Amino acid sequence: MMEDPAMHKPVAVEIRAHAKSLTDTKRMKFISDAAQSGDKATLASLLAAYAYLSGMTPEQANLAQTLAQDRFAPVESAQLAAANKVLERLRTAGSHLVGLYSEICTLRESAPSKTNKAIQKLGT
Predict the structure, then answer these.
(1) How far apart are the first and last CA of the chain?
(2) Model pLDDT for residues 66-103, shown as the tens digit of each residue
(3) What integer pLDDT is reported at residue 4 of this predicted model?
(4) Are 67 and 91 members of one domain?
């Protein structure tokens, strides 16, 4: 098995051509099998180039990237997933905070507040 597919570019081209010739279902099985067996050369060949060169959609390429990360960098992959969950929760909390602040601002500009402002203007 090759260690670095970049050193064997013709083989990487052949791997991409093979993947492109497969149906979507067979292509994803090919990628999944490569990840499960630890075939770095195949995954690197597919992921080192634009997805369309292997016949993959962007979604399929993202899935292939995730499979490779999970197989070859499981700790880092888990850390990335946890960090993404934290970011999503922060976005949700931020949206909630903005919504609450908007309600407070609306209350400040309620009818009594507007009435008081209008009365004050009349007095000047």
Answers:
(1) 88
(2) 999 999 999 999 999 999 999 999 999 999 999 999 88
(3) 56
(4) no
Measured CA to CA, the distance from residue 106 to residue 41 in angstroms comes to 59
What is the extent of the structural domain holding 90? 76-123
CB contact burial 62-76 (16+ within 10 A = b; e otherwise): ebbeebbbebeeeee
If you search the block for the tokens 């067979």, which residue do you land on? 26
Provide the pLDDT for residue 117.
77
Q: Are 64 and 34 in contact (CB under 8 A)?
A: no
Query: Closest by alpha carbon to 53, among 20, 14, 5?
Result: 20
Q: Is residue 31 within a helix (H) or strand (E), and if so which, with residue range?
A: helix 24-37
The number of distinct structural domains making up the chain is 2
More confident residue, 60 or 107: 60
* Rounded distance between C-alpha atoms, residue 87 and residue 89, angstroms: 5
Distances (CA, A) of 86 to 11, 65, 93, 115: 40, 21, 10, 44
pLDDT at 5: 54
For residues 19 and 12, give the distance between their C-alpha atoms in angstroms, rounded to a whole number: 11
